[in-house]
Structure formats: C-alpha cells, structure tokens
C-alpha cells in the first residue's frame, strides 16, 4: 500500500508544479531573438493576462534586470511563465506564429475538379466611348510609346506610378475612375490608396486595347487591416498574364529575367524557386523595395486569397455606376471562406455578389 501511494504521489506532485517565475524591478525587458538582441523590446504589463509575445523565432530569451528565461517556441504549444515586477505577477505567453511563407505554403492545395459556376470574365473593348476619351485626354499612345507590347505595358504602369502618389490612409474620391482619381490628386495635392492606383492603370490598359484586371490580394484571415491591389495584364507577345503593380512600380521575374504572372509568383514563393524584383521598384520615389521586403514579406502575406471583378470595365468603383457587380475569389482548400455565393447590398444601394472557387485554372483562364 505504501509503494502504491508513493507511485500515485509522483504525477500529482508533477502536475502541481508552478510555472517558472523570473523577477524584475523595471518594466522594460530586453529580448534576444535567434541570437539577435533587441533592447527594451517588451514592457511588463501585469494588468494584461496573458500578455502574448508572438514570434516565429526558434529561440527567444527574455532578460529582465534580475533574471532571464529562454524558450524554444513550438507551434500549437504556447509557453507560459510569470514575470514578478516588484511583487506584481505578469502572466507572459510566448506563442509561435507561422511566417507568411509558412501560412502561404499551407494554402498550396487547390481543387482542379471544382466546377462550381461563376460569371464569365469579360473585358470592355477599347472602342468604348469612355475608354476612347481617356486614351485621348491623357495621350496614352504617347505614354505607351512605339516599342513592343511588353515595353508599352511597363510604360503605362510607370506613368501611373509617377502621376499618382500612394497614400494608403487617404479617403477615396467620390468619382473613382481614372479622370476623377487623377483630377482629385492634382487638385488637392494628395495621394490615393493602392486600389485606386490599380483602377487607374486597369482603365488605361483597357483603353489601349490590353486585356487587364485589377486584383485584390488578401491574407488568410477574413478580418484584416491591410491587403494590396495590383494588376494582371495579358501579353499576347508572351502568351501569358503579367504582374504589374503601379503602387510600387513593380514587376516580378524568374532567375532568367522572364516576366511572371501572379499565379507563377505565388507558386514560386511557396516552393522556394528564385524570384527577382525589378531594380526600379520603390514607394513614392522615397524608398526602394527589395525582393525580401516586397515579396517574402508583404506579398507573401497578401497572396493567400485573390479576388477580382468578373467584368473589367470603366468606372466600376464609383457608386451607382455599376449597381450590380459580381466578384470572383480564388481560395485554397485550407481557406476559411468556402461559401460558394454570398451577397452584400451597400448603403448606396449597389449590390455585390461574391463567388468562391478552388479552381485556379478557371480563375487564371486566358482571355
């Protein structure tokens, strides 16, 4: 009986062990992340319980003025400990958070057998009166130049980048077509967000006879504070869609400097194949963009889900210009939103219908 009691006591005592506690007399904590020390990187906050430190590092060490603790984060297994700040205990949690690339890799799987229907993609021809007016008003033929098709596509993208300043926090103008957006920016000396810049470029491409869409690139989360809108334009010369981003004057290439589509960039990010960003890529001519910050960081986050209007036309963003619009969203099988059809009616009375597909062949279909 005594031996049985002793055996039972061992797991009970183990279960009752308290979480580790380190002490501190000052609130600021230094943290070493994978060998790199960050001074005053964390503030002890006893009122927040637990206070979560999210990281994708392999090793994290917290240094107070009185102690230290080293954690090796494991996904799905948050590590809790206490920091005793002058008698007040702060429950602190180190939680592994996947990198954007890791999250994107989990969204690799699609379903080529998904035959759920959605409206066919269509593109307004350059003969449209509004597009003809746009072409003439901004002398787009001169801007595009007399070079080959790809050089014209790049020139138009660069012109939008140089004509409009990006400001992600700005309010959208009331008239959201190329003339309205450019006019407001000039009159008020201000910028617009990436969606408005991609709208202008899309209309310029259509006006010049290029098949184009603007696409909203979104993270996995259904509620988010940031996404990015770019353009996909079809090159007959190369027989493929091309990635064009007027916000950052950016396009993407492989190791042989072949221009890539959005689909190809996403696949290469997931599989680790080489990617190159054009050397001119920049934000408002104030800061350069590199492959690492633009693709590995920012766009890896925003290429999980991709949405586009079914019709690529003039003035699709202005209230009442298109009372009914259909959108199509490409979602991997790991996505959180798999509902095939959903609807939304805005305060303006405009109705938007959203379709989901898991089939990239249908979404990236050539025109």
UniProtKB/TrEMBL annotation:
Keywords: Signal
Highest taxon above the source species: Bacteria
InterPro entries: Papain-like_cys_pep_sf, Transglutaminase-like
Keyword Signal: yes
Gene3D superfamilies (UniProt xref): 3.10.620.30
Domain Transglutaminase-like per the UniProt entry, residue ranges: 142-246
Name of the molecule in the record: Transglutaminase domain-containing protein
């Amino acid at each position: 009986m005594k031996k049985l009691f002793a055996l039972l006591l061992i797991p009970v005592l183990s279960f009752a062990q308290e979480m580790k506690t380190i002490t501190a007399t000052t609130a600021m904590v230094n943290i070493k992340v994978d060998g790199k020390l960050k001074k005053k990187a964390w503030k002890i906050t006893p009122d927040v319980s637990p206070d979560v430190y999210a990281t994708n590092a392999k090793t994290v060490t917290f240094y107070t003025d009185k102690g230290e603790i080293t954690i090796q984060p494991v996904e799905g297994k948050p590590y809790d400990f206490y920091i005793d700040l002058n008698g007040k205990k702060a429950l602190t949690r180190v939680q592994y958070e996947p990198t954007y690339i890791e999250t994107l890799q989990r969204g690799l799987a699609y379903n080529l057998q998904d035959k759920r229907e959605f409206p066919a993609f269509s593109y307004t021809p350059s003969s449209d009166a509004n597009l003809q007016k746009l072409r003439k008003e901004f002398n787009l033929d001169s801007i595009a130049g007399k070079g080959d098709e790809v050089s014209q596509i790049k020139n138009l993208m660069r012109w939008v980048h140089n004509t409009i300043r990006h400001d992600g926090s700005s309010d959208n103008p009331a008239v959201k077509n190329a003339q309205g957006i450019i006019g407001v920016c000039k009159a008020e000396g201000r910028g617009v967000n990436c969606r408005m810049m991609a709208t202008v470029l899309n209309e310029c491409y259509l006006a010049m006879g290029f098949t184009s869409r603007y696409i909203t690139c979104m993270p996995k989360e259904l509620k988010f504070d940031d996404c990015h809108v770019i353009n996909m334009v079809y090159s007959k010369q190369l027989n493929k869609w091309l990635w064009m981003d007027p916000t950052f004057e950016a396009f993407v290439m492989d190791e042989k400097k072949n221009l890539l589509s959005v689909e190809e960039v996403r696949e290469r990010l997931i599989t680790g194949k080489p990617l190159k960003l054009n050397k001119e890529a920049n934000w408002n001519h104030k800061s350069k963009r590199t492959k690492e910050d633009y693709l590995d960081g920012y766009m890896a986050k925003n290429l999980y889900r991709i949405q586009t209007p079914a019709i690529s036309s003039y003035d699709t963003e202005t209230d009442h210009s298109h009372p009914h619009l259909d959108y199509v969203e490409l979602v991997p099988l790991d996505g959180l939103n798999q509902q095939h059809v959903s609807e939304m009616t805005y305060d303006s009375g405009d109705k938007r219908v959203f379709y989901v597909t898991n089939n990239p062949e249908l979404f990236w279909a050539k025109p």
